[in-house]
Amino acid sequence: MPTTLKITVETFPIAGKFVISRGAKTQAHVVTATLINDGKEGRGECVPYARYGESVDSVVAILEAQREAISAGLDRAALQERLPPGAARNALDCAFWDLEAKRSAEPAYRRAGFARLEPLITAYTLSVGSPEDMKSAALQAAGRPLLKVKLAGEGDEARLAAVREAAPRATLIVDANEAWRAETLAANLSACAHYGVALVEQPLPAGEDEILGEILHPVPICADESAHDAASLTVLKGRYDAVNIKLDKTGGLTEALIMAELAQKLGFGIMAGCMVGTSLAIAPAVLIGQIAAYVDLDGPLLLARDRTPGLTYEGSILAPPMPDLWG
């Protein structure tokens, strides 16, 4: 029986707004691929990201172009060669994983080589804003054990000071989203060390990060926009201490697992990350979270409304997905 494809575009409101150095948004636009075979359905969600030249329309067009191949028997292995890394492949790859699990009655995590899935402690993201606004947000989240602090360049030390004052016991990760420059790098890293930051994410623009291999790292530095798939890792050696693995960058769980294995062999720490999406997008990333030193899978916590059924969060503790959601 041939496999059929259904494509759905949905919009989920963000609670308040999500602000990083590149701008703000109040809605999460997601694309879901559903693969149907013999009464079983497998789903995968992706979040098109303009930073990587993607849009909802472009991702939908890529998915539409796969209908004939899917009907003719395209499988998850062949998909890796057919499409490049990115959001469209992620949606299909995760849908294949889910369909395989539903058809075999073997959970996706076992097919991926895990004996079981453990609950995870996820970071909770504080959007960039004025020091006063960020202090207020940090006060509300001060009971969470791990906070991810978005920064934007000028004025970042004041932002850090405000967040640290409001949340003195939380572990802090900061994410500059490429907003720092070489001339401010040393001062910003020094400020991060002073305020006890555990990890700095993507301080410099991708492609302009060579200097990271020439300086001391008073705080470990993690690649995000510079790290996409396994092939991108070798050049990052010596520049970064860790890599942020996101399924929308790798093009799905299949490549993410390969990337994680190579990252470990090369000596990188691993962060499991996400775009702002629903529980369906986060569920397969929970597998990467099992081998990550830092987990940043708070996408659904940032939404005003999530899918039903969704993932279960108790504070910052993320429970493994149930089969009716994914896997």
Task: Write up what this structure looks like.
Helices cover 31% and strands 23% of the residues. By secondary structure, the chain is an alpha/beta fold. α7 (156-166) links the parallel β6 and β7. α1 (56-64) packs across α4 (87-104) and α6 packs parallel to α7. The model has no long low-confidence stretch (mean pLDDT 96).
Distance between the amino and carboxyl termini: 21 Å
| pLDDT < 50 runs, ≥5 residues | none
Total strand segments: 14
Q: Can you identify the CATH class of the largest domain? A: Alpha Beta
Keywords:
327 residues, alpha/beta, Enolase-like, domain 1, TIM Barrel, 12 helices
Condensed summary:
The chain is α/β, with parallel strands linked by helices.
List the helices and strands and how they pair.
Layout: E1 4-20, E2 23-37, E3 40-46, H1 56-64, H2 67-71, H3 76-82, H4 87-104, H5 108-111, E4 120-121, E5 124-126, H6 131-140, E6 146-150, H7 156-166, E7 171-175, H8 182-194, E8 197-201, E9 221-223, E10 242-245, H9 247-250, H10 253-265, E11 269-272, H11 279-282, H12 285-289, E12 294-295, E13 313-314, E14 317-318
Parallel strand pairs: 5-6, 6-7, 7-8, 8-9, 9-10, 10-11, 11-12
Antiparallel strand pairs: 1-2, 2-3, 4-14, 13-14
Helix pairs in contact: 1-4, 6-7
